[in-house]
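Reviewer 2 asked us to include a model.

Predict the structure of this chain.
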Amino acid sequence: MTKEKPNADQLISVILSGIEDVKGQEINILDLREIENTVCDYFIICEGTSNTQVNAIVNSVQKKVSKELKDKPWHIEGNDNAEWVLMDYVNVVVHVFQKHIREFYDIESLWGDAKTTVIETSY
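Predicted model (structure tokens):
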């Protein structure tokens, strides 16, 4: 019996929940499906206030996705310094930044053609 991969909507919902559980800030979803030659369908971008919070966001997302969807990231990069951690779930890539690093790289502008959804948080 083969394991069924979660669909993108389920995965995004669980990832957002994991980010919100530890109060990740400035959450944006970039829909890249209409752009040619992209590496995935969605970017989820958020920020933490310190490397401790960045690590907490990454751990929260991993645990939540693992528990609820029985899935794990294909690859994780940047855990060592926790300024920019990339979590690759194949069709959804999560970028967790510290504020100053996010401003420096400005991924939202690089992918300016993407449809952007800003996630409102209540904290």
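The chain has four helices and six strands. The radius of gyration is 14 Å. We have added this to the supplementary material.
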